[in-house]
Design goal:
About 10% of the residues lie in helices and about 50% in strands. It has one helix at about 55-60; strands spanning about 5-15, 20-25, 30-35, 40-45, 50-55. A 5-stranded antiparallel sheet has the order 3-2-1-5-4. A hairpin with a 3-residue loop joins strand 1 and strand 2.
């Protein structure tokens, strides 16, 4: 069975109760809002990076992959 989940390393620029604002290249101008209900957030090795696990469809729609 194929999983449609992908892991994406992002820089989080802002966080609210319902969503995170993140970018793959650290550029806030290119950051996108991801609903927390659509992803899991794990701290990365560095303080600035995190790993988002989310459906591939959402990652594509948001331009993260």
């Amino acid at each position: 069975m194929r999983s449609d989940l992908v892991d994406v390393t992002v820089r989080l620029h802002h966080e609210t109760n319902r969503a995170v604002l993140g970018s793959t290249d650290g550029d806030r101008e290119k950051a996108v809002w991801i609903p927390k209900s659509a992803c899991e957030i794990e701290p990365g090795a560095g303080k600035a990076t995190h790993t988002l696990t989310l459906p591939e469809r959402v990652a594509i729609e948001k331009g993260l992959v």
